[in-house]
Amino acid sequence: MDQEFSDSSEEKFLNEDENQERVHLFGRQNPVHTALGGGKPADVILWRNKQISAALLAGSTVIWLLFEWIGYRLIPFICHSLILSLASMFLWSNLSFYVHKSPLTFPVIQLPEDLCTKFALLLRDKCNETISIIWEVATGKDIKKFLSAILGLWFVSVVGSWFDFLTIVYIIFVMILTMPPLYEKHEDQVDSYALKTKAKLKKQYSKLDEKVLQKLPKVPFISDNKQH
């Protein structure tokens, strides 16, 4: 009986998703290239410009191997790179007269004010949004968000115990350069599998909500604060 109920409930959730307007992964309606913002960054991520994409992947791999296998450190790497660059430009500027070469002309580089302002405003909005989500989770308004936050933080802590920070950054960078083009190539199969997985997660959450969450006492955080 339980097996029949499980199968029927899963089919119910699957049929509900299929009856809705077909959406792609993460609720995306636009093509992958458009969803990534279009332009040159999307071309690099989706390997439309294979030379730049391959160079970025190879360069990041070399840097990761340099730090992880040889044991190089970030601060010495930055300092040695700057020393080499400054010494090369200094020698070229001073020896160009003797070797009959034109001296280097250094362009004036200034960050535009509007770009810095937009970045600061975007950073502020993201910080405020994060603080709002943390406050909403902490006050107990939505048990689903609370459980999602706890599981997400636990998963990050487990992954962080396996790898160091540089390796995690490298893995994320490699995923950015490999996952989107693979998804674009096998979009229909991935969306179909995601739809089935979503139906199973809905079924499991409905069981958890019925057997556990609905039986939990609701603590009125907000009302208690107002009374005080």
Would you kindly provide a written description of the structure presented here, covering whatever features stand out?
The structure is a single chain. With 228 residues, the protein is an all-alpha fold. 74% of the residues lie in helices and 0% in strands. The chain is built from 10 helices and no strands. It has helices spanning 2-19, 32-35, 39-45, 50-68, 74-95, 113-138, 143-162, 165-185, 187-211, 221-227. The longest helix is centred in the middle third of the chain and has 26 residues, at 113-138. The chain is elongated. The two termini are 51 Å apart.
Write the SSE topology.
Layout (H helix, E strand, L loop, with lengths): L1 H18 L12 H4 L3 H7 L4 H19 L5 H22 L17 H26 L4 H20 L2 H21 L1 H25 L9 H7 L1
Helix pairs in contact: 1-9, 4-8
Report a brief summary of the structure.
With 228 residues, the protein is mostly helical. The protein is built from ten helices and no strands. It has helices at residues 2-19, 32-35, 39-45, 50-68, 74-95, 113-138, 143-162, 165-185, 187-211, 221-227.
Query: Could you report the average pLDDT, rounded to the nearest whole number?
Result: 76
Q: What is the share of helical residues?
A: over 70%
- Identify the overall geometry: elongated
Low-confidence stretches: 1-6, 17-21, 221-228
Count of DSSP H/I helices: 10
SS-based structural class?
mainly alpha
Tell me about the biggest sheet? none
Measured between the Cα atoms of the first and last residue, the distance is: 51 Å
Rg of Cα set: 26 Å
Number of E strands = 0
Q: Provide the succession of SSEs.
A: HHHHHHHHHH
Beta-strand share of residues: under 5%
